[in-house]
Every structure is written in C-alpha cells, then in structure tokens.
Amino acid sequence: MSKNPSVLIVDDEPEIGALLGIFLGDDFDVTIFTDPREACAEITKRHYDLVISDIRMPFLSGLDVVKHVKSVRPGVFVVLITGHAQTVADKAEAIGLGASEVLFKPFGDPGKIIGLLQKLLEGQDPAAAAAAVAAAPVVSGQKSKPRVLAMDDDAGIVEILQLLLEDYYYLHTFTDPMEALACFAVQKFDVIIIDLNMPTMSGKEAILRIRQLNASIPIIVMTGHGRSEPEALEALAAGGNDIMEKPFKSVEELVAQIGKLVE
C-alpha cells in the first residue's frame, strides 16, 4: 500500500489546524504546528509534499512561510488560507512568491480542498487544478442530509439534539462556542442552532460573529425562557431567523422547524 502524501499545516489557531487535520487525515499524513517559526524549522529538517499555511499569524506571516519553504524546498507546494478579504494584488503577491493557491475561509466542501491538493500533487498547473475543482459537479445519487451546527454549553441538551436529529441531519455539536465558530470557519453548514445563554459567549455575540462571515445562513436561537424575552428579541435583531423553545415538544416539530429554514 502506497504511503499517503505528507502535509504540514501551519495555523496559530489550534482549532483550525485540528479541523484541517480531521479533513485531510484519511488522505494525507498530517503534521500540525501553531507557531510558524517552529514550522519553518521543521520544513528545513524534513521534506513534506505540501504545506498549508494561514496568512495572518504572529511572528511570521504566511508570505514569510512561502519564502522560507521555497528557499529550502523549492519543489514543495504551498497553499495559503485566510479568513480576511483579499484583493487581486494580494493574491498575485502570494502567487509571485511561489504559493500555488490562496483559499478563503469558510472553505465550504472539504472534498474540494482534498481534490485541489491531490491535483497539485499530481503535477497539474495550480490555476488549472483550482479551476477544475471549483467547477466539479456534485455527484448525483441519494440526496445528502443537510448539515447542522449546534452549540449549547449544556452537554445534556447537545446529547438530546444529537439523538433527536441524527436520522435527519448531519449534526455537529459543541459545548464551547469558540470551538463551534472555528468549525464554522472551515466547514459549510445549512443551518446553525445557537443557545441563547452561554457562560463564555452569549447567543447574540455568536450570531454577530457568524454574520461577519456569512450573511445568509439560517440561524435558530434556542431558549428556555420563551420567545418574547428581551434577550431572544435582541438575538433575532442581531441576525437570528427563528426561536426554538426548550424543552423540545416533539421530534416532528423540531425537524419541521429546521427543515423550513433549510428549504
């Protein structure tokens, strides 16, 4: 059996690096660094087939990483990632330094990222590989389940949601809203469910952060205090689309409420 290609991931946010590692783990041999200085030292000592680096990091930027990689390992592909808007000139600078492609967070379909990396390693021209992956049609067949991201600091509620919805949706659940937001930054979802009252971050604050990345994804606000409470109304005003009341009345009602927003 052939050895998987080796990939070095550099991102100062541990959650992003870990999630990329999960995406790529079945197809690549993944090593993750949060400090770009340590990553550059590693690439000097050991060969990797491909490097994926965030652009904005402390100590060294993604552009600095590209320069270092190309100076010590000229044949290694480098893909940069960013959650910030870039101009054509910014991307041109990255490509000019030797980057093969620049990807923007949230990434959307992880399969397309894997496809891009595989095509680069197969020797395709980077621009042609990116264009081919972006234009790849969705394979027809059985309709896939909608993807739902749910966050609630109450592990019991998270478990209940998982049990109630697993037959209808692909559910990603988190008790830490920061981890949930990191997941949202790199994955594509159809609906988000957010608890209104969480100790580390309010539902309203989570909604505002999501709306900075995606203005249209449907967001359901969970609350155990009723639809008319001031905090619930503020969450709707911040960008929430609907209120889900706890305790949940029935599986059918829960699925219908989410399904309405998916459609």
What's the domain count?
Answer: 2
**Can you tell me the overall shape?**
elongated
In order across it, which strands form the biggest sheet?
Answer: 2-1-3-4-5
Number of strands: 10
Number of helices: 11
Q: CATH-wise, what's the superfamily of the largest domain?
A: Response regulator
Radius of gyration (Å): 20 Å
CATH classification, class level of the largest domain? Alpha Beta
Q: What's the pLDDT, averaged over the residues?
A: 84
**How far is the first residue's CA from the last residue's CA?**
44 Å
CATH architecture of the largest domain: 3-Layer(aba) Sandwich
- CATH topology name of the largest domain, in short, is Rossmann fold
pLDDT < 50 runs, ≥5 residues: 138-142
Instruction: Report helical residue fraction.
Output: 40-55%
Characterize the biggest β-sheet. 5 strands, parallel
The run of helices and strands is EHEHEHEHEHHEHEHEHEHEH
Structural class: alpha/beta
* Percentage beta strand: 15-25%
